[in-house]
Amino acid sequence: MTMRLKLVLATVALATVALGLTGAISVTLTRAEMIDRVDATLAEAIRRPPPPPTSQIDSPQPSNPPAQPGSSADGPSKLALAVIVLAPDGSVSGSAPSGFSGAPDPLPDLSRAKDLKSKETFTVPSIDGSLDYRARAVTLRDGRSMVIAIPLTEVDATTARLVLIWLLASLGVLAILSTAAWVIVGRGLAPVGAMAQTADEIAAGEITAADMARRIDHEHPGTEVGRLGMSLNTMLERIESAFAAKAESEERLRRFVADASHELRTPTAAIRGYAELYRSGAAADPEAVEHAMERIEGEAIRMGELVENLLLLARLDQGRPLRHDRVDLAQLVVDAVSDAKAVEPERPIEIEGIAPAVVTGDEARLRQVFSNLMSNALVHTPAATPIHVTVQLTDGSVHIIIEDEGDGIPEDERIRIFDRFTRLEAGRSRETGGAGLGLSIVASIVQAHGGSVSASPSSYGGARFEVVLPLT
Predict the structure, then answer these.
(1) Is 21 in the same domain as 133?
(2) Which of 51, 340, 397, 404 has the most crowded Cβ, counting Cβ within 10 A?
(3) How far apart, in Å, are the Cα atoms of 108 and each of 61, 130, 145, 326?
(4) What domain range is 91 assigned to?
(5) What's the pLDDT at 318?
(6) Residue 283's pLDDT is what?
(7) Long-range contacts, stretch 319-322, CB < 8 angstroms, 24+ apart
């Protein structure tokens, strides 16, 4: 059973109960009001009783009976009252039935009355049980009792008509209500149906990017259905983002594996080539053998460094804990500048704003950050290009800025500068350029320490790298 049908049935059931209670109360109160009016007429008849009839029970009424309260003066004679006279011993000494003279009503069955001596009004059925009377007894001067009764024919007929009208009206109201409820509930639950259909379609088969891009229309976000639609859309957006991240991660992994394989294949091929050269006897003289061994050793060292860098990135990706020592970044920057000057003594390198900047972290990894940045500046700029290093302290953080006056980084390549195996100079030799992991290692180490690193144009016209780390 659908939710729509359940809601409609529940609405119709509640309406049926409400209409039933309303109808029952209305009919009961109306009947009670009509009986009160009959009792008032009966009380008036008791105050002015008609002459006692002298005929025996069930005797026909005269064509022109004496006037009685409720009788009609014109047209066919119809008595509104039934009168029965009882002797002191309880036997009927006379009676006058109500109704038309040609078709009188059956007399009340007084044998079923509880107490005729009581002055209370009571209800009694007719002899044949076809109708009911409201009756009341009065004692005559000669000791006899006279019972005056009014038939409830009109009351019963009016009650029956009222019940029929109520039934027809209730059926009409229920028909209109059920139709309206079906339409209104259907329109209200239409977004829910669309949500269910979307969920079924997504769950039925392999989820595609097009499925994840689908959204539920919700015109009224303030309603429960609207909020449900918004929640489902949010869930779809998160699933879409998760799938996009998964696809991006898989693509990055494929590129990573391909680049790593390519980088490892180069030294491996060189080592294999020199080994085959030596085995074939082509490198027979000592100088050729020494050169081959040097190249094999150099490529082995390069391959070992590449493997170490890959392992470092893997450990950082896994979130393995680093050391938490108190490290003075200013001293690390000074050491990195000193190492750079030792490599290129003629290179002009300026350092400014050196002041103690203590952070909590892994000293070896942080030292590697500044070593890689300085090495990057040395490799990517001409030998005489100046390098500027600045240490700035702000509220709660330290900024280390390394700038050069070289050609800078093209804007379209700046966004991927920290990606792995990224070389901005496609034709640059691996002898001088490396594997393209230096800046990605910098970014991973800085992020592992809760900081950030960015690349931007330098005010000197070259490249600008800024590392931001929280102070202890």
Answers:
(1) yes
(2) 404
(3) 16, 10, 15, 114
(4) 3-59+70-159
(5) 72
(6) 67
(7) 319/448, 322/361, 322/362, 322/365, 322/448, 322/449
